[in-house]
Amino acid sequence: MHRLTVELADRSYPIFIGQGLLGRSDLLVPYITGKQVCVVTDDTVAPLYLERLRHTLDGYKVDHVVLPTGEAYKNWATLQQIFDALLARRHDRGTTLIALGGGVIGDMTGFAAACYQRGVDFIQIPTTLLSQVDSSVGGKTGINHPAGKNMIGAFYQPKAVLIDTQSLGTLPDREISAGLAEIIKYGLIRDIAFLDWLELNMPALRALEPGAITEAIARSCAIKAEVVAVDEREGGLRAILNLGHTFGHAIEAHQGYGQWLHGEAVGAGMVMALEMSRHLGWLSDSDCQRGVAIVESAGLPTRPPTDMTSEDFIRLMAVDKKVLDGQLRLVLLRQLGEATVTADFTAAALDATLRKEYS
């Protein structure tokens, strides 16, 4: 088992990574202060893992909320179901919420925990590859708005993150590829040696070879924990974790949340960021193509939907959390392994990137 720590002074918390951890009460009990627990999950994950977790939590008063599956339900109406259940079952300020599921469940449970009685504890148990390497770590919580993804939420850190790699065995190939998008991102933005490793091990990762997938998760979480420790609330450095996301969020909003998986949209978005970095003269043609090839090798799309226009992108990217004082900022690459957040690009460079997608 790997154990990492997100260093945030008195709010620091552990990340446990390994096989069979869902049955390890010793990894959960130290982070539950009261006797009430509410497990929030969805109708895909509940039949697979809810009873196992309830057994692990023997001795606690355990309630659960089962939400509908998918990004399309990451909204106010679904969030309200969590509050309704907590109030109906009289959960007090000592309760602990546990997010059992993918990124949608983790984001909504964390946001509910931040709001309920002005803040209660929560624990992340991510069950998808994407949530294990990204959304479960770092304290970003929230819901979508029709005009923009994750535009309503809060920074609110969990007490612990429990990553059981055995849960990956029930995922379809498409979900594995979606998770690999975020893993590739870490190599592109901050760790060229990791990028080299990913190129060599991509077949093993797609096959969920235990040693390879555990190593990839651990290295991804370590990079994210390092960045979050420096910049918890995305005032500077942390924004580099959004490589490809401004383009990708536009794709998700345009297509309708859930039509493209988040990782699929990020995959196409990272290719667009690579292309734009090349247009600006920061990446060579060969480095750009190398990045595109890694994305493609993970089974991810490298082009956005054919029904999106450059005008669609411009309109949707204007509603993005990285817009500051009316100016769009993008995460681009100075070189492979070195990302920057910048508004220092011309409209012509952005237009060239967008137009290439439809030429």
Topology:
Elements: E1 2-6, E2 13-18, E3 36-42, H1 46-56, E4 61-67, H2 76-88, E5 96-101, H3 103-115, E6 121-126, H4 129-135, E7 140-145, E8 148-155, E9 161-164, H5 173-190, H6 192-206, H7 210-230, H8 245-255, H9 262-279, H10 285-297, H11 310-317, E10 330-335, E11 338-342, H12 347-356
Parallel strand pairs: 2-9, 3-4, 3-5, 5-6
Antiparallel strand pairs: 1-2, 7-8, 10-11
Helix pairs in contact: 4-5, 4-7, 5-6, 5-7, 5-9, 6-7, 8-9, 8-11, 9-10, 9-12
Description:
The chain is α/β, with parallel strands linked by helices. It is 44% helix and 18% strand. The protein contains twelve helices and eleven strands. It has helices at residues 46-56, 76-88, 103-115, 129-135, 173-190, 192-206, 210-230, 245-255, 262-279, 285-297, 310-317, 347-356; strands at residues 2-6, 13-18, 36-42, 61-67, 96-101, 121-126, 140-145, 148-155, 161-164, 330-335, 338-342. The strands form four sheets. Strands 4-3-5-6 form a four-stranded parallel β-sheet, sandwiched between helices. Strands 1-2-9 form a three-stranded mixed β-sheet, covered by helices on one side. β10 and β11 form a beta hairpin. α5 runs parallel beside α9, α8 crosses α11 (310-317) and α9 (262-279) packs across α12.
Offer a concise description of the structure.
The chain is of the alpha/beta class. The protein has helices at 46-56, 76-88, 103-115, 129-135, 173-190, 192-206, 210-230, 245-255, 262-279, 285-297, 310-317, 347-356, and strands at residues 2-6, 13-18, 36-42, 61-67, 96-101, 121-126, 140-145, 148-155, 161-164, 330-335, 338-342.
